[in-house]
Design brief:
The protein has about 180 residues and is an alpha+beta fold. It is built from 6 helices and 7 strands. The strands form 2 sheets. A 4-stranded mixed β-sheet has the order 4-3-6-7, with helices on one face. A 3-stranded antiparallel β-sheet has the order 2-1-5. The longest helix is centred in the first third of the chain and has 16 residues.
Length: about 180
């Protein structure tokens, strides 16, 4: 019972403190993805986008816990269309609370996520504000869908919630270049 209360506390705090500063939404297509540090639920450290040079990579970025519903729709859509692209979920929070409790937050995510996909979840705590400022964080429940090219340049961006039209535009972007 104590674990349940703790998880409720963590998720509430994550929602309350996930976006402490507001940034206007913007479309960063054509820009270099900002350099940030994160670590996967498998405890592997990443420098993003530097560690992905040479590959097209899709980032599904969430700022609050409730973004997971939208992220799930994107991943299901990608799976159902048999779209092949390296995809990573990036929970990107800001504020002191997530930084202080990052180990507990990661542990609580591991409880709810199958271990075979832990490598595809890269949490960004310290640099989360950088990403939120870069894309904007209005409507924080919407996933920031970011496709980078082999050099880390953004070639597709969407932040208005999942739609078939947006999925088809993403697939079209993958086929270009």
């Amino acid at each position: 019972m104590r674990l349940i209360h703790f998880l409720i506390f963590i998720m509430t705090a994550f929602n309350l403190f996930g976006c402490t500063k507001s940034f206007s939404n913007k479309n960063p297509v054509g820009e270099q993805f900002p350099s940030v540090k994160g670590h996967s639920l498998e405890k592997k450290n990443y420098n993003i986008p530097e560690d992905f040079v040479g590959d097209k990579v899709l980032f599904l970025i969430g700022f609050v816990q409730n973004t997971q519903f939208d992220i799930d729709r994107w991943t299901i859509g990608l799976d159902q269309t048999t779209t092949k692209v390296n995809t990573y979920e990036l929970p990107a929070t800001q504020g002191l609370f997530p930084i202080v409790f990052k180990t507990r937050l990661d542990d609580s995510m591991r409880v709810g996520i199958p271990d075979e996909i832990w490598g595809g979840v890269i949490t960004i705590y310290k640099d989360g504000e950088i990403i939120q400022e870069f894309t904007g964080n209005e409507n924080p429940r919407n996933t920031r869908v970011v496709l980078i090219d082999e050099r880390g340049i953004i070639i597709f961006f969407h932040d208005s919630g999942f739609s078939i039209k947006a999925l088809n535009e993403l697939i079209s972007s993958l086929k270009k270049q």
